[in-house]
Amino acid sequence: MSLAGKNAIVTGGASGIGRGICLRLARDGANVAILDVNQAGAAGVASEVAGLGRKSLACQADVTSRVQVEAAIAQVRQTLGPVHILVNDAGIGKFVLLAEMSEEAWDEMIAIHLKGTFNCTKAVVPDMVNAKWGRIINIASTAGLGGAAGLVHYSAAKAGIIGFSKGLAQELGPMGITVNAIAPGLIETPILQQNGVITSRMQKFIEQTAARAAVRRNGAPEDIAAACAYLASEEASFFTGQVMSPNGGMYT
Ligand SMILES: NC(=O)c1ccc[n+]([C@@H]2O[C@H](COP(=O)([O-])OP(=O)(O)OC[C@H]3O[C@@H](n4cnc5c(N)ncnc54)[C@H](O)[C@@H]3O)[C@@H](O)[C@H]2O)c1
Prior knowledge:
By secondary structure, this protein is an alpha/beta fold.
């Protein structure tokens, strides 16, 4: 119960890693607001959080819209109170080679990951400065560390999130606020599906990645949620500007 009395916002909390983080933070004692474009999914996770005995809220918002984000965060403040923990998890992962990549695909990827992280962070920092305590955890990727073919826009966005986290850690450290990135390896979630199904090519990639990992498996949302719970905790107050990479030893 290390997070008892804390209020957390998890963007992208309706599915996959974000859902896993919501449930773990709730188990550790936090109240949790889910900010997601998927209203039905967010409402489902909010019910699960409530079932764990915590306060919860589902807010429908697109992280690329500053107006929607600010309205959602105002709703969170009204319902739960000031925000202590922000997890920027909302994301997409569409594979396309650079040669075939449209300007729209590039802009969408950069907007959701980078502008979304900017919008949500900017909206909650005043609460954290006021409390002289805060935890900002940004979900990057091993693609942002080592790069991934078919995902140059995603790799660029995730490397940007790492730079954002390191810069902001320097700005906010003196105010008791830590900022870190988590760079997961392959985690089996709906992001790997195309139109609701796993293609045979993707299935092969998933199996090959598991075989390359030292632990001979891909990750689960709970693996990332555990790292997030540590970074959100009081014990992690000396841990800032870092990239934690739960990846099962998948480096090559
Ligand atoms: N699954 C992996 O292998 C993996 C690996 C490394 C990093 N990540 C990152 O983890 C995060 C979560 O991914 P996941 O695998 O759980 O995928 P997911 O598809 O299960 O969840 C992503 C969530 O983000 C939400 N979302 C998408 N665009 C949004 C927007 N504009 N505004 C608000 N919400 C939006 C979706 O509705 C969804 O609920 C992403 O940032 C992803 O890049 C995933």
